[in-house]
Design goal:
Lysozyme-like; alpha/beta; 11% strand; disordered N terminus; 5 helices; globular; 193 residues; single chain; 34% helix
Amino acid sequence: MKQIISFWSAFLLIFLSLNCASTQLQIHSRAEWNAAEPKVYKSQVPVRITIHHEGEIFNPNKEFAAQHIKKVQSWGMSEARSWSDIPYHFIIDFDGNIYEGRNVFTAGETATEYDPEGHLLITCLGNFEEQQVTEKQLNALIDLTAYCCEKYQISPSTIKAHKDFAKTLCPGNDLYHYLQSGYLLKEVEKRIK
């Protein structure tokens, strides 16, 4: 009898963990994409989540995501921008792999006129004016956004797109319609409940 109770207890714990946003996501570390050490940065407490696209056409058949992410960091930290690190806190590739960007307690950086202080920045590789978000990428975005809402106590109602704060096409029409229609918010809230 005790074995049956133990089995059902274990099954219930596994079932609950699969249906809870607080389940640990697999997030590839900065070391996995060979990140450089960040420069001096501005601290922040994230109070909202802002969705971006990286803006470059990304072809996973020609380039590894880790290599592309490293190029973005190198460009941003060069004289071209003089940023302290890669501008985003998390990056998601076409296969739904999530990569650690800058420390979430550091303000992001942008080439547009809005102040990203207090924003937790999530970007998807690609240019969604010209490409389509993959199903794996969209699901990873939903999972990661729900995870961040719970982990950093950020209200899902704060989820917006870069273009909601600045004159930009980011995150591209194909990704933006998931925010504009309310689909992303609805799916994030389902994962949090």
